[in-house]
Amino acid sequence: MVLALKALEIGKDDEVITTPFTFFATAGSIHRVGAKPVFVDIKADTFNIDPEKIEAAITEKTKAIMPVHLFGQPAEMDKIMEIARKHGLKVIEDNAQGIGARFEGKVAGTIGDIGTLSFFPSKNLGAMGDGGMCLTNNDELAAKLRQLRVHGENPKYFHKWVGLNSRLDTLQAAVLLQKLPHLENWSEARRKNAEYYYEKMKNIPAIQLPVIHKKAKTIYNQFTLIVENRDGLLSYLKENEIGCAIYYPKPLHIQECFSYLNYKEGDLPVAERLAKKVISIPIFSELTTEQQDYVISKIEEFYK
Ligand SMILES: *Cc1c(COP(=O)(O)O)cnc(C)c1O
User: Fold this and answer.
1) Ligand 1: does its nearest atom lie under 6 Å from the Cβ of 2?
2) Given the CA of residue 69, which atom of ligand 1 is nearest to it?
3) Domains in the chain, ordered, with CATH?
4) pLDDT by residue (tens digit) across 266-281?
5) For ligand 1, is residue 68 a contact (CB within 6 Å)?
6) Could you tell me the distance, in angstroms and rounded to a whole number, from the CA of residue 304 to the centre of ligand 1?
7) How many angstroms separate the CA atoms of 252 and 265, rounded?
8) What ligand 1 atom has the least distance to the C-alpha of 130?
9) Could you report the per-residue pLDDT of 72-107, keeping only the tens digit for each?
10) Mutational test site, ligand 1, from 71, 95, 114, 120, max ligand atoms within 8 Å of CB
11) For the chain, which ranges sit under pLDDT 70?
């Protein structure tokens, strides 16, 4: 993500619009290149950045929009690209969670100027350690990214830019190449598991199942519910040895390290409210129907 921002020459005094409801790296990378993250609230149903609120955040310093395809569901790229074109902004898609997802049939991460992938073990295509990748349809940007990832050198020992050491480790690449052919099947299995949850849990009034935008095809990196008494449910599921987690308990605009940005609680109410109500339950491809029934029965039991 740092490489993507550097390739687009985003740095000091620039602003990048993004979502507060995401993993830290999204805004961390913007800060890292010396730019300022500007947070725009999310939609209450899809958890993704609300396109209707983007234009109000644009200033003469805005250089780019960085939408996140959260939990595997693409943000509304049609509206985001339209706003970017209108205002001459770059678009970097943080597609760490959405490899293979689609919006209007287009592959997520290939719609904006640059898309970024993460191969952290918890992603749908996970390595055995860290790794990532930039995607672009622009040959010039591709060449620049390749150069920036080896300290900006080309030819060897001659540096046009200050890049960084950001090669994909060879051992991780070997692991990823073995796993890549299975990716589509694994994501399909996640979608099947999701369908089962939708079918079996539609009648539990205390929970809202994930809402998928009609133009989006998700890969369900997470299956995230909006629930009543979230912390109670979390403890109950953990007591019953069901793996579950909160993505994310604290939106980025009110993180301590960003206090210099001067946001305060209440500024982005949708993200703040959902941070207190979300819980993600198991969705991984190898999950069995029996295991899903167990998860569902424990959720039902809790709300009785
Ligand atoms: C995982 C993730 C990243 C990147 O994380 P790394 O650990 O640096 O690979 C970025 N953005 C989001 C939304 C993520 O989930």
Assistant:
1) no
2) 13
3) 2-179 (3.40.640.10), 182-303 (3.90.1150.10)
4) 999 999 999 999 999 9
5) yes
6) 37
7) 11
8) 9
9) 999 999 999 999 999 999 999 999 999 999 999 999
10) 120
11) none
What pLDDT was estimated at residue 294? 98
C-beta 48 within 6 A of ligand 1: no
